[in-house]
Write a structure and sequence with these properties.
Blueprint (H helix, E strand, L loop, with lengths): L8 E6 L12 E7 L7 H15 L27 H20 L3 E9 L2 E8 L20 H8 L2 E6 L7 E8 L10
Antiparallel strand pairs: 1-2, 2-3, 3-4, 4-6, 5-6
Length: 185
Amino acid sequence: MVRRFSFRETATEAGPTGGAGGEAVTEQIRRLALDGQSAGVVTRCREFARRALTDWHWIAEPDGAPHAAVPHMPHMPLPDSPEAAEDVLLMVSEMVSNACLHAGGPREFVLRLAPGGLRMEVGDGSPEPPRRRTASDPALPGGHGLLVLERLARNWGWEPYGDGRTGKKVWAEVPSPLARPHGPG
């Protein structure tokens, strides 16, 4: 049986004055509408994130072709290692899984790329804040999601929707492996 998912993928580029006129883009946004679905949504979000990370050059193209720089952000060189992308994909899995298990399923998944890093957001319909669950056995699945975020993210947190909807956004931020300090040379 083939399941079809309703989703909306949008990409937005915003610069200091909206990205028009050729100025440098300061943020790129990818949004995936999920409408509270749970079945297959973790895989869908990981693949959505993998496509974005590939487009943003955190991950090499499948054919291994090198890239010169991130489009619209030429000051951002190539990543040093693929580990940062794998950490992002793990955090995506944990955040989306938590929304499925504890909040009735995710409504939306958003990636925001800025020169300094990446912000991942998972929106859901539950007003309850995320809380750490005690794992019965560290070797068994379950109860590790927020610990993963605490260990891998530069920052993470949650906020209620600001538009009056019931629910919240759980977010995590990671520094970009593309933003290297410029040393002498």
